[in-house]
UniProtKB/TrEMBL annotation:
Keywords: Aminotransferase, Cytoplasm, Glutamine amidotransferase, Repeat, Transferase
Localisation: Cytoplasm
The protein, known as: Glutamine--fructose-6-phosphate aminotransferase [isomerizing]
Reactions performed catalytically: D-fructose 6-phosphate + L-glutamine = D-glucosamine 6-phosphate + L-glutamate
UniProt keyword annotation of Repeat present: yes
Annotated organism of origin: Neobacillus ginsengisoli
Assigned EC number: 2.6.1.16
Section of the entire sequence shown: 244 to 600 of 600
């Protein structure tokens, strides 16, 4: 039930700090250490390459998940859009592990890949919010998101839950290999949960930003570098699916290779700057588009902020910034849809779970 909330989407955005705490709690053992079923960790350790298969928002979570698994557990990862995987199946490694990320656990495109890789005898793990869902039943192993039912068509809390579970999977695998991590994930995810709360309390400011940048425009661009690029892709998907504003996410460095031709007087550019290593280069991209008339909305992280920024998110561990920076993306899209009188929870032409290929 959505209770006093006008829309499920807003309720689900607000639930993110709670979901984060639930995940930390559920994946902890009595000693307070993160834990995952040993057979899943064995499957990670037995594999020489992980293939993440997903669609839409879950695919965007996979792009960030690849960074977690490669940087923390040091296993190479490929991320594939489920519907494309079958056409040009990559040359598989000797011991592949397939991870299916799906909120609903019912996405037909992902299931088609699951069926075909099982026929080839490969191991499969589903990360889903729905126990007993098709992808969960048919895979060898399942990890649950514990996000509670997600009703709004636009996926929000499932995305951050997917990232949290993927980071835990990476961490537990790394620990089983005796890698030194240099950070305590339980502690860092706790900081993430607190930061999420701060963001959920910043709705007025974000509504104002959404009105300022998106109330009249027909299009919008999201730019970022490194993981910020992946969050930009998710921001663009959220905005287009519920507000019908044509939105695209681009890597900051790709602008000059074509997209910059689309910049006109007043074109909104939402730029993410949460990574110290690329802070100056993304700001260079912002200057390039501003010189062509763009209207820049810079969302940065505390410690990296500059005077011209529209919104500053609280500081979290640099690997975990997507769990935080996505929240202003979700809220900007929500208010843009609201201001345009769109049906926020049930956008046209879309279904919550896509059970046809
Ligand atoms: O249930 P799934 O995670 O497999 O769904 C995948 C996509 O259909 C889904 O993420 C879709 O892109 C959402 N509407 C995005 O908000």
């Amino acid at each position: 039930e959505k209770g006093t909330y006008p829309h499920y989407m807003l309720k689900e955005i607000d639930e993110q700090p709670l979901v984060m705490r639930k995940i930390i709690q559920t994946y902890q053992n009595e000693q307070g250490e993160l834990t995952i079923a040993p057979e899943i960790i064995n499957a990670m350790n037995d594999s020489d390459r992980v293939y993440i298969i997903a669609a839409g928002t879950s695919y965007h979570a996979g792009l960030v998940g690849k960074q977690f698994i490669e940087k923390i557990a040091k296993i190479p990862v490929e991320v594939h859009v489920a519907s494309e995987f079958g056409y040009n199946m990559p040359l598989l490694s000797d011991k592949p592990l397939f991870i299916f990320i799906s909120q609903s656990g019912e996405t037909a495109d992902s299931r088609a890949v699951l069926v075909s890789v099982k026929e080839l005898g490969h191991r499969t793990l589903t990360i889903t919010n729905v126990p007993g869902s098709t992808l969960s039943r048919e895979a060898d192993y399942t990890l649950l998101l514990h996000a509670g039912p997600e009703i709004a068509v636009a996926s929000t809390k499932a995305y951050t839950a997917q990232l949290a579970v993927l980071s835990i999977l990476a961490e537990v695998t790394a620990k089983s290999r005796n890698y030194t991590l240099g950070f305590d994930l339980v502690h860092e995810l706790g900081i993430v949960a607190n930061a999420m709360e701060v963001l959920c309390d910043s709705k007025e400011l974000i509504e104002h930003i959404s009105r300022e940048f998106l109330s009249v425009t027909r299009n919008a661009f999201f730019i970022g570098r490194s993981v910020d690029h992946y969050v930009g892709l998710e921001g663009a998907l959220k905005l287009k699916e519920i507000s019908y504003i044509q939105a695209e996410g681009f890597a900051g460095g790709e602008l000059k290779h074509g997209t910059i031709a689309l910049i006109e007087e007043g074109t909104p550019i939402i730029a993410l700057a949460t990574q110290e290593s690329v802070n100056l280069s993304i700001r260079g991209n912002v200057k390039e588009v501003v010189a062509r008339g763009a209207n820049p909305c810079i969302i940065s992280m505390k410690g990296l902020e500059m005077d011209e920024d529209s919104f500053v998110i609280p500081e979290v561990h640099e690997l975990l910034t997507p769990l935080i920076s996505v929240i202003p993306m979700q809220l900007i899209a929500y208010y843009a849809a609201l201001h345009r009188d769109c049906d926020v929870d049930k956008p046209r032409n879309l279904a919550k779970s896509v059970t046809v290929e």
